[in-house]
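Student: Hello, beginner here. Can you help me understand the protein record under this note? Any guidance would be welcome.
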Amino acid sequence: MKSYYIYTYGCQMNTADSERLSHQLESVGYTPTEDVETADLILLNTCAVRENAETKVYGRIGELMRLKRKNKNLILAVTGCMAQKNQAEMFKRAPHIDIVLGTHNIQHINEMIEEVQRGHTHQINVDMDNSVLPELEAKPNGTFYAWVPIMNGCNKFCTYCIVPHVRGREISRPVEAIVKEVTELGAKGFKEVTLLGQNVNSYGLDFKDGTDFGTLVDALDGIP
């Protein structure tokens, strides 16, 4: 039985992405472990909002070299905003990394793991396609509340903020897809959901059909 361990840094959006990564990994036979020392796959879901966040991640990656030396089959993957920002540069700084996965590509984690296992080291996918937001199932960490992403990216390009550069421009999930996810969470006993986005006030504006955040809230109202 293969096991995985995920380090999650940064915002709730990264937490939600980690839950979607967990579901994909478990769909191909991985099981979660709380002991990083025994994991067959270690994934770092990273943040790049502040320099200190990147320093912390690079420090952790350096520490994990010890486990790579001990277990030659261990796969080390890095995703999230720092992976999107630094891209192939990460392999130069830490050659023991196997996978660099951008913010728009977490749906490819399993196929990239397969490529590494075939002996094709240093897999990278950092393409940013803002025309499609893939629908991915999640494995919520809790039993009472859940994170539900409703959009990705931001169009503001504030001087101090890196989000539009690593998450791309705004793209919204369809109302129907969000209603379906929240309905399923309610049926499983979840009592609280948090709707996530870099700027939820802009939800639906990319649809150009009058859909907005109020439309979504109205659609979710009344779900048991």
Remarks:
- Residues 49 and 162 are 6 Å apart (CA to CA).
- Strands lie at 3-8, 31-32, 41-46, 75-80, 99-101, 123-125, 145-149, 151-152, 171-172, 192-196.
- The longest helix spans residues 51-70.
- DSSP finds eight helices and ten strands in the chain.
